[in-house]
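Sample entry (378 residues):
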Amino acid sequence: MGFIKQLLSFALLGASLQGLAFGDDFPQEDINSGKALQQISKTAYDAALARLEASPSSTCTKENVRVRKEWRKIPEGERASYVKAVECLMQQPQVYPNMTGPKSMFDSFGVLHYKMTPYVHNSAYFLLFHRLYVWTFEEKLREQCGYTGAFPYWEWGLDAGGVETSPLFDGSETSMGSNGEFVNNTGNAFFGRGSGGGCVKEGPFHNYTVNFGPNTASDPLAYNPRCLKRDLNTPLCAQWASLRNTTETILESPDIALFQANLQGDFRWPEARKWGFAVHGGGHFTIGGDPGGDFYFSPLEPVFYQHHGQIDRMYFIWQNLDWENRQTMAGTITMMNMPASRNGTLDDVLDITPVGGSFKYSELLDTVGSSPFCFVYE
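Predicted structure, serialized as tokens:
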């Protein structure tokens, strides 16, 4: 009888997922307000845990699965512990020999991203590279700096009415530091100007030194110490990273090729052109500044990992709304297929040594399956 009940519960869950996967309509007000996003997020969460319960691995069970949470849903003490762990990682030895710029393990993640950027953006590898990259960062926080709390992501749409007052950026000791000092003539023709532009004023990371970059330097990996600058941009967040944009990106993407195009605003897909900078660019340039606005060195901005946690959360939701049909890869292995390259495959190997490990891309599809991962998103 227990088996029959379990089988019935899976059948009912599958029926509900099938409806969502093929774009059941939500009232526009529910999409705009985030209510629809909450619903599909809960559905994906339940689906992932149901799969885990049905097929636990030797390393991932319902008892030890980690739950990633939005920044403001994490208790203040735990947020402060997360900040201290990031600051700790900024004191751990870097792992790249014969480089003058990077000084810490935190910096080493910036070197890795710089080296990989031409192959892991607007390519077949974008989503799975960043999934492993963010998870590896989390593991370093735990292994080297003793962090034991939930890993936080940033739901940009919750701050579309005022990024400057977000609990993530309000400058309190439980934030990730404040906006930058207001500086005239910052911003550019593409993104507009934000409300800061100068060095972070207060709170965590206001004394953090960015050690290398920018990408436009003659030697981007050479030592170039400077302050962390931010140029928070609420209008850009509201336009490109709203709750509506996040929800519709998920619901209007029937396959992986269109999902990652919609996520990144890849103009090679006509359907993706309406998204402009899309949620990926929208989140990055809502932070802006230096290095947050630097395509290659954005991981030297500490909030990069909350931003890309949200990107991976979207991927997690999208996958788990139709799991059987969403374990695929699409695209070539170079950015915008320049230079022209072969298609990526799930048998390709992602090697991020010396920062992290080496895995087949197929091992990175499931956050609760036979993979290095064991996490879900709340």
